[in-house]
Design brief:
CATH class: Alpha Beta
Number of helices: 8
Mean pLDDT: 97
Order of helices and strands: HHHEHEHEHEHEHEE
Strand content: 15-25%
Shape: globular
Low-confidence stretches: none
CATH superfamily: Vaccinia Virus protein VP39
Number of domains: 1
Length: 223
Amino acid sequence: MTQDIWTSVDDYITSSLVGHDEVLEGALERSAAHGLPPISVSPPQGQLLVLLARAMRARRILELGTLGGYSTIWLARALPRGGRVVTLELEPTHADVARQNLRRANLARRVDVRVGPALDTLDQLIAEHVTPFDLVFIDADKPRIPDYYARALALTRPGSAIIVDNVVRDGKVADPSSDDPNVQGVRALHDVLAHEDRVSATTIQTVGSKGYDGFTLALVNRP
């Protein structure tokens, strides 16, 4: 199996089940034009986020790692009338591109883009006693993943879902000797989840246009 095959299958899935979308494709083009890294979710992954959000009837979604707003558009489209996405981004330039893309998608009113270190913003949300989120999508720097997870748990309710992207790292997550900070971060998350009775969780390996990786899905059982 090769990357070419994985990508061709993703292209087939996109064409047959997801469909091409000028708004989303334009968001990727504008992100690339502004020099943002090409690390957004793939179209099938974006559609998966939509299906999960709709299946659980999510009204409030929290995203960590806005980048150019590509995944944010997917998430915002999944919301019912009156729903809201709060998305956190460290880089002001990335946030500006995301806001442009959200305006072009006619979704700016559904999304609150907050700029700054995610842990600081999460602590602010906790201090504000905001309404719990139904779905949290964590697609941010991996060394801080356990800290993001802990804050996400404080901002959710029983029945909420927490999704953490890019946790398999080309299979390196299974290597206890790895000194890669990203691998150490996702292994630390798994160590936390292994002793966590407040959630039920699993990690799924994936292949596709983004290579060999995977995501963790945790369902909140209790506060």
